[in-house]
Amino acid sequence: MFGKFMNNYYYGKAGKGDYNKENLPKNRWQLFWEMLRVRFGALFQLNLISAIFFVPLFYIAAKGFESLLSLAQVILTVQQGGESITPDMVAVAENSGLHMYAILFRTCLWLVPCIIITGPAQAAMAYVTRNWARDEHAFVFSDFKDAFKSNWKQALVISGITSLLPLLMLMSWQFYGRMAQNSVFFVIPQIFALMVGFLWLLGLPFAYPMIVTYNMTIGQIIKNCLLLAIAKLPQNVGVRLAMLIPVAIAFLVSLFTPYALFSLMFLGGYYLLLGNALSRFVYASYTNGVFDKYINIKIPGAEVNRGMISEEELEGIYEDENSLGESKDKDYVSPSDESGSII
Question: Is the pLDDT of residue 162 over 70?
């Protein structure tokens, strides 16, 4: 009896879908909000079981944020003037560029191992939230564990590249910036380095969902993520900016009010309790639609628009109720050609 109880706790209980076929959402916007309502409580659970992989990242990011905030406050104090200004503060303000670079370099260096270890957890979260976002079942604990074990190798490659990116971008900007003082030509590689990093960050939301959904090589995954980043550029920028709203609010509150400590505590609590899983759910909802448009339509027999129903399909509402059944395996073989391109 106790063993059965623990098994139910770990694997959950089998049940029916959240919707009958006739009640399925009619568009992706409706599907997103309905699934968010249904899975909101489970997002807390998913965030908590993955939090251990993100604690070092949050800590280093918070320390870097705190250091930058302190530098900004010193600069503002010096600019405003007053009797409390010391010679050291003036020296810091006069060399603010060097101090900022030192803070950013130290933070980016420490972030390398912190970001690397998050890769497998992000792949596991991508699998669970992918299923939830298209109204398919996924157990929080068992499916997270299984997806973690199945996809950790490719996920580590993606997180490894991501971990080096901020450091390489910073060093490239600083190096070519100095060279550009002697020759305007070096502005070109300086801007190019930023563009590559920016493009990678826009393609990153596709990487982990692609890992857990398709049988692609790591080279194909990287190439297709970059292609999708370009193909959906405005939408990718919008989604990324939307996910940065809590950080922007915390920074503004910290900079212009005396409640910097409380804003940092709130931001840390948000990401430890919900923020990371919520972001993965938003990315999953978005990438499900993009994959349907650019990938799944090229796969013979692949199902598209999962979790939704069209007006024409309402005529068959009493057909197979299990048509949206779950699967823990990779959904599809890669539809790419020999070059690995999907679009």
Answer: yes
Per-residue pLDDT tens digits for 294-333: 998 888 877 888 877 765 565 555 444 444 444 455 665 5
Residues contacting residue 26 through CB under 8 Å, at least 6 positions apart: 308, 309, 310, 311
> For residues 85 and 132, what is the distance between their CA atoms, to the nearest angstrom?
55
Nearest CA to 308 out of 324, 326, 284 is that of 324
| Nearest residue to 165 via CA among 116, 99, 117 | 116
Q: Which helix (H) or strand (E) holds 104?
A: helix 96-116
pLDDT, greater one: 266 or 312: 266
Q: What is the DSSP letter of 53?
A: G
Question: What is the pTM assigned to this prediction?
Answer: 0.81
DSSP assignment string, 215-270: E--HHHHHHHHHHHHHHTHHHHHHHHHHHTHHHHHHHHHHHHSS-HHHHHHHHHHH
- pLDDT, tens digit (0-9, with 9 covering 90-100), for 40-77: 999 999 999 999 999 999 889 888 888 888 888 888 87
**CA 192, 117, 272, 282: dihedral to nearest 10 degrees?**
50
Distance in angstroms (rounded) separating the CA atoms of residues 287 and 314: 26
Span 122-140, mean pLDDT? 93
Tally of CA atoms within 13 A in the half-sphere of 105 that contains its CB: 11
In this structure, are residues 221 and 158 in contact, taking their beta carbons and an 8 Å threshold?
A: yes
Taking a C-beta distance cutoff of 8 angstroms, is the pair 280, 122 a contact? yes
- Helix count (H) and strand count (E) of the chain? 13, 2
Phi first, then psi: what are they for 8, rounded to 5°?
A: -65, -35
